[in-house]
Structures are given as structure tokens and as C-alpha cells.
């Protein structure tokens, strides 16, 4: 599903559906500048912060600060409520293994870094709209195998819709 398709489906869920989320995992990470676009995500955030410990990686701050200054300012404001996870050498090493193991295409090392930061910090779920390189079943299988072979628990990777649907 493309971002445009996800945006087109925005109206399918009303804001009142979000409080149905149950706390099934204590830590949740929100990643990727694409996550900031759809209205469905913005409506989901208040429920996420109420039900989960929510985080973004330092990489997200870099990503949302890019582009149009006015829009970047709005994106930065939107992620203020989330705690930031730092990127260290251990995360970079795990990200390199994810890429070299073909879990994430070498053209998108930042996606591997998101996963590595989450795994190293014990994050249970990564929420993203990135269907191309993160939230698809083939990537999930490959990434899970690589991360677990390195001795870490691999976070679940899902879209905001999947998170909501799993809680209904």
C-alpha cells in the first residue's frame, strides 16, 4: 500500500475507535517521517501515549526536520511527546548486519537502524507506514531471523491500522 492509498483510507476509522487499544506491550516506537502524514496516525497518537510508553529514535528527529521549514516545524512539534532513543555503535553494528543479511535493502540503511535501535532498547512494537522496506511479511521474516540470530528480541513491525486491528 502506498502512502497515497493509506491517506485515502484515513476516513475509515473514527477517532473514537482509538481508545479501544489495550496495553499489550509496554514499549512502542514510532518511526519514519511517513508516519506523520496520515490523519489516522495523528488521531491514534493520544491513545498510544496513554496506553504505551512511546519512543522515537534520534534518526526520526533528523528525518522530520528535513524539507519545508514550516512543515518540518509542525512535524517536530508532533513528535515532542515521545521520548527519544539514542543511536550508538551497537545499534549501528546491528543495522549493518540487518543490511548485509538482506533484511533491508542496502539503499535504505536508515530503516535497518530504526529496527536496531528498537531491538537494543527492548521496544516491543515498531509502528510505521513504510510498507516497502519495513512493514511487509517478507521483510519481517528476514529481519526477525537476523535480529534473533544476533541475540536480540526482534520488535514486531506493523502499520497503525494493524495495531488498531489487533486490539479490536
Reconstruct the topology from this structure.
Blueprint: H1 3-8, E1 27-30, H2 39-51, E2 53-57, H3 58-64, H4 69-78, E3 83-85, H5 89-100, H6 109-120, E4 125-127, H7 137-149, E5 156-158, H8 160-167
Parallel strand pairs: 1-2, 1-4, 2-3, 4-5
Helix pairs in contact: 5-6
Keywords:
168 residues; alpha/beta; five-stranded parallel β-sheet; globular; Rossmann fold; disordered N terminus
CATH class: Alpha Beta
The overall pLDDT, averaged over residues, is 76
- The count of DSSP E runs of length 2 or more, i.e. the number of strands, is 5
Helical proportion, percent range: 40-55%
Measured distance between first and last alpha carbons:
22 Å
Order of helices and strands: HEHEHHEHHEHEH
Strand order of the largest sheet: 3-2-1-4-5
Strand fraction? 5-15%
Number of helices: 8
The named CATH superfamily: 5'-nuclease
* Overall 3D shape: globular
Based on the structure given, which CATH architecture is correct? 3-Layer(aba) Sandwich
Quick recap:
This protein is an alpha/beta fold and 168 residues long.
Overview of the molecule:
The chain has one domain (3-167): 3-Layer(aba) Sandwich (Rossmann fold). Helix content is 48%, strand content 11%. The protein has eight helices and five strands. The protein has helices spanning 3-8, 39-51, 58-64, 69-78, 89-100, 109-120, 137-149, 160-167, and strands at residues 27-30, 53-57, 83-85, 125-127, 156-158. The chain has a five-stranded parallel β-sheet. It is globular and about 40 Å long.
